[in-house]
Amino acid sequence: MKRREFLKAGGAAAAAAALVSACGKSTKSAPASSEDGTMEYRTNPVNGDRTSLIGFGCMRWPMVKDSEGKDVIDQEAVNEMVDYAIEHGINYFDTSPAYLQGQSERAAGKALSRHPRSSYYLATKLSNFGDVSPEASIQMYKDSFKELNTDYFDYYLLHSIGRGGLPVFRRRYVENGMIDFLLKEKEEGRIRNLGFSFHGEKETFDLFMDLHDSGEIRWDFVMIEMNYVDWKHADGVRNVNADYLYGELERRGIPIMVMEPLLGGSLAKVPAGVLRMMKERDPDASAASWAFRFVGSHPGIQCILSGMTSMDPLRENVRTFTGFKSLTEEEMDFMEMMGTQIADFPLIKCTNCKYCMPCPWGVDIPGIFQHYNKCITEGTYAQSTGQKNYHKLKRAYLISYDRAVETLRQANHCIGCHVCVQHCPQSIRIPRELRRIDNYIENLRKDTL
What is residue 311's three-state secondary structure? Predict the structure, then answer.
């Protein structure tokens, strides 16, 4: 497919855009060493950027309640975390206008602008999931400069290519002229590197690789979901196995950014049997450190994003990537075996990204899924009335469910409107899973499992 065919609607939006102030190409000062040693860095083979192997994903900033009871970002905590991250060598920060219901970029901008712009790489996205008009898309792009207090982006992404396939991509980026507009912005220096994040089918991914190979659109980098479960155990239909995505990008020399190395935090709290085997191999290593080392041991990885919500995981991640140790070949095989075992658990593949929120009917979708998955991984999931300790497990599940999810926000309040489904990057059939959980709870209450 030729770009003149693929982008036949392009060009109009560029003329309509008011240009933001120009800037020169970014140059970064030498990365700092952490107090505990040296942070692991990877040199971008295309542009020479030296990014920390661990990057700060700004999708899970700590939240507090304001005076009106609304969830807002705890800016003081964010400032503390960003200061610690930069002090200890983390120099890559990734956000989006869509994160935390529009609050993430502003919080990141406030925290990062307290540091020299040359001390960090900044990435954000065109997250035009709703209004795809050129006016709205360009305004979103321009607003990101204001929110992040910057006049250029080091890495700019087309957000979640693949969801809905080629027709959705054309509406979001082609027919409104945004591809041509962003390529022009790159020429002007306001975008240093243009890439995309991917969730979708193999055929869609292959199409974008074909465009790269033909030279019609050269991707400077690509972000994929990669962890030791998705390496070979993605569903293979709505999401592609990470070993395939990684292999296709590596052989083309395209720098790879990684999202969900912990699969929404689930690989930091693995099933008891899996954790026991990990501890037998290394009593001092956490489940999260095993997961990070699996991803970082692949040489084509430029940066691994972690959405750290507090100082404790931030400190642990700094320790993991300071004096980073790649897995041996035998350890890689062990981790793939762990991935196979976890894939056999009846978990809902929710990463707690909250793209499905807010639910028009108030259902706490990620809260319900996170509670359900937690009970499975911790072995507190009642499976049948004949199970040992069934009544104890039943009572524990029902009590913890009521504590984790407000009554008016529980699964039985889902009406099946499917508004959430179109926003889920994991392509979870959310109403169906909510019905399944609600049926499970009713069977628990009636002792009919």
Answer: helix
**At 159, which helix (H) or strand (E)?**
strand 153-161
Residue 301 belongs to what H/E stretch? strand 301-306
Residue 189 and residue 23 in contact, taking contact as beta carbons nearer than 8 Å: yes
Per-residue pLDDT reduced to its tens digit, 69-101:
888 999 999 999 999 999 999 999 999 999 998
Strand 121-126 versus strand 301-306 pairing type: unpaired
Handedness of CA 187, 192, 197, 201 (dihedral sign): positive
Q: Contact, 278 vs 334, CB < 8 A?
A: no
Q: What is the DSSP letter of 309?
A: -
The two beta strands, 301-306 and 153-161, are: unpaired
Residue 170: strand, helix, or coil: helix
Give the tens place of pLDDT for each residue, 33-42: 333 469 999 9
Rounded Cα–Cα distance for residues 157 and 141 (Å)? 11
Residue with tokens 């607003």: 143
Mean pLDDT confidence for 337-356 = 83
* pLDDT tens-digit map of 289-323: 999 999 999 999 999 999 999 999 999 999 999 99
The tokens for 427 are 């392509």
CA distance 275 to 6: 48
Could you give the residue ranges of the DSSP H alpha helices within 218-310?
A: 230-233, 242-252, 272-281, 287-296
Token pair 């990062």 in the structure block, residue? 112
The C-alpha atoms of residue 425 and residue 408 are separated, in whole angstroms, by: 26
How many CB atoms are closer than 10 A to CB 294? 25
State the pLDDT at residue 317.
Answer: 96
- Which pLDDT tens digit goes with each residue over 183-193? 999 999 999 99
User: How far is Cα 434 from Cα 350, in angstroms, rounded to an integer?
Assistant: 12
Give yes or no for a contact between 338 and 274, defined as CB atoms under 8 angstroms apart.
yes
